[in-house]
Every structure is written in structure tokens, then in C-alpha cells.
TrEMBL record:
Keywords: DNA-binding, Transcription, Transcription regulation
Superkingdom to which the source organism belongs: Bacteria
Organism: Pseudooceanicola atlanticus
Source taxonomy: Bacteria, Pseudomonadati, Pseudomonadota, Alphaproteobacteria, Rhodobacterales
Database matches in InterPro entries: AraC_XylS_family_regulators, Homeodomain-like_sf, HTH_AraC, HTH_AraC-typ_CS
Domain HTH araC/xylS-type positions: 212-311
Protein's recorded name: AraC family transcriptional regulator
Membrane-spanning residues: none
Single GO term (MF): sequence-specific DNA binding
Length: 327
């Protein structure tokens, strides 16, 4: 389910500076920049099932100081620029670029562009959201998170479509099943944005070759009864070497990565909405214990495998009806 809110504040001779209710965080300090025609507009689309809020912000300029320890934040300015200060580190985000931040204390100032108000899209992603736990990067002491520019381009376009639809006289995405399908798209874009970013970091590490070969072997043999010793033998290394390479590169064990790949494949197959049962899909993806698969799947994605399959079949049926009507 999607919930949409649009909040506006514009300064006038009679208005007070009551823009606090528009804020999507609880800052230690917030102030609008000085000047004429001050305004703040915040449109938010909340997807509680995946612990994610997407926001569109228009501002004449403001400053905000906050400590955010529960969310990952992706900032994407479209007009103007953003200045972010964290400890002794300063980052400037220009139009068309982006910055992803983990939990951090930061001071942010946004500035409007020439003759245009500042505009940006943001994503607030809960660290506690079950469907995202297997796709979010490992939080470290460095609050700046690696992202993939190519994946960000698609994410930016997705948010542009979202807010264009929600602002229209007859929005489609506010209703089910469209909102559920869009939430699945958001989840996939987040996965691509951070996974590809982590792959770029892995390329710079000496363990990349071994981890890359291991991941390729996993993906090619997901349906086989793999174990860590079997994978190590196939790759010509010891179990200890394989485990160390994964822990240093991706902060996970080989078995955790194998399980994540199997879960991803199972979810794709379930969302495809074909004729296979949950049991058949689980076995095809290498899960030998159906009860354990269902438990792990629910803990990862926040819903039962049967619910995902049902949604996939609904989407497949809707597409078939559309094809019939347009044909």
C-alpha cells in the first residue's frame, strides 16, 4: 500500500514561519534561508511494506542539522545544489549527481539555482525493513555509501514518474495492485543501486577475483546441493581462504551469499507468476527444506512466498487482459 502526502508552506505578510510540520525528519535545527518569496514544498510517497519513503522537495533554500541513526538516505538534486558537512568532511552535490548516506550526524544546506527554486528527490530507507536487509550495504564508520551512477539514472526516472502520476488528476499508483507492483520496482532499483555500487568497490580489492569466481559458480549452480567445502574445492582454494575472502570483501560468509542468491532467484520466479508451485520453485532454487525456506523468505522480504506468487499471478493475469483488450 502507498500513502501520499503533499505539504506546502509559503511565506506571506500574514503567515508565520510554521514549516516544522512539513519536515520528514526530526532535526536539531532547521531554518529557511533569508530572502524573498520563501517557500517549502514536500511531497512524500510512503511504502511501509518495504520501509521506504520517496520524497520530492522544493525549497527557496534552507539549513538543517540532524542526527539520523535509523535510515539510509539518498539525495538527488535536480535544481540547485546541496552542501553536506559531516565531522570534518564536506561534500557538495550538484544537479544530476547523488549522494547516499548511512546513519550519521550532519549539517545540510540547500541552495536554489539561478532563477529557480531548489528541487531534489530523496529516498529514506529504514535499516530495520525486513525486505531490504539482504540488499542494503553493510554500514561502516564511513557514512558515504557507494552507489552505481547507471543505476541511479533509472532510480531518478522512477521517482519522476511516481510524482508525476501522484500529482495528476487521476493517479494510478495510489491504488492496488499498482502500488504493490511499484513497491516491488522500488525494491529492485534499491538493490541494483547499492549492489552494483558494492561490486565497483570489490573490483578495487585483491580478493575480488576469488569472490567474483565464487559468485559466478554459485549463480550457475543454485539448484545443486552446494556446501562451502564443495565450492572451495571447485575453485581450487581452501575453505578458510574462501571464507576470509568473502568476509573481507562483502562482510558476509559464502553460505550467506549463496542463500541471498537463492532467495533472489526464488523471488524472481515467484513474481513471474507462472504455473510452478512454491514447493517446486523452492526446490529449483536449491532449498531442500520447505519450512526453513518459507521462514527465511518471510524474514527477508516481509511476506510469505505464497503471497509473492499470488501477486505475481495477479500481475500476469492483468497483463494478459490488457493484451487482449489492446489486441
Amino acid at each position: 500500500m502507498l500513502s501520499y502526502h503533499s505539504k506546502h508552506w509559503e511565506e506571506s505578510a500574514r503567515s508565520r514561519a510554521d514549516f516544522g510540520s512539513l519536515l520528514f525528519s526530526a532535526p536539531d535545527h532547521f531554518n529557511m534561508s533569508k530572502g524573498r518569496d520563501r517557500k517549502l514544498i514536500v511531497n512524500s510517497a510512503d511504502f511501509p511494506d518495504i520501509g521506504t519513503s520517496l520524497l520530492s522537495v522544493t525549497s527557496s533554500g534552507h539549513e538543517i542539522d540532524l542526527a539520523d541513526d535509523k535510515y539510509l538516505t539518498v539525495m538527488i538534486p535536480t535544481h540547485g545544489q546541496t552542501h553536506v558537512h559531516m565531522d570534518r568532511r564536506k561534500t557538495v552535490i550538484q544537479e544530476g549527481s547523488a549522494l547516499a548516506l548511512g546513519p550519521s550526524e550532519r549539517w545540510t544546506r540547500v541552495e536554489k539555482g539561478r532563477h529557480r527554486d531548489f528541487r531534489a528527490n530523496l529516498a529514506k530507507i529504514s535499516l530495520d525493513a525486513a525486505p531490504l536487509r539482504h540488499v542494503l550495504p553493510v554500514v561502516t564508520d564511513d557514512p558515504v555509501l557507494p552507489t552505481a551512477p547507471k543505476a541511479l539514472a533509472g532510480f531518478r526516472a522512477l521517482m519522476h514518474y511516481l510524482f508525476s502520476d501522484l500529482a495528476s488528476p487521476m493517479p494510478t499508483l495510489i491504488h492496488r495492485p499498482a502500488s504493490d507492483l511499484f513497491a516491488a520496482l522500488v525494491l529492485e532499483h534499491i538493490r541494483m543501486m547499492f549492489q552494483t555500487g558494492m561490486d565497483r568497490i570489490m573490483n578495487e580489492k585483491p580478493q575480488h577475483s576469488l569472490v567474483s569466481r565464487a559468485e559466478e559458480f554459485m549463480v550457475a549452480n543454485l539448484g545443486e546441493p552446494l556446501t562451502v567445502p564443495i565450492m572451495a574445492e571447485a575453485l581450487g582454494v581452501s575453505v578458510r581462504q574462501l571464507q576470509d575472502a568473502f568476509r573481507q570483501s562483502v562482510k558476509q560468509s559464502p553460505w550467506e551469499r549463496l542463500t541471498a542468491h537463492r532467495l533472489d532467484k526464488a523471488r524472481r520466479n515467484l513474481l513471474a507468476g507462472g504455473g510452478d508451485t512454491v514447493t517446486a520453485i523452492a526446490f529449483d532454487c536449491g532449498f531442500s527444506h520447505l519450512g526453513r525456506f518459507a521462514q527465511t523468505y518471510r524474514a527477508t522480504f516481509g511476506e510469505a512466498p505464497s503471497a509473492t506468487l499470488r501477486r505475481g499471478r495477479m500481475r500476469r493475469s492483468a497483463n494478459r487482459i490488457d493484451d487482449t483488450q489492446t489486441g
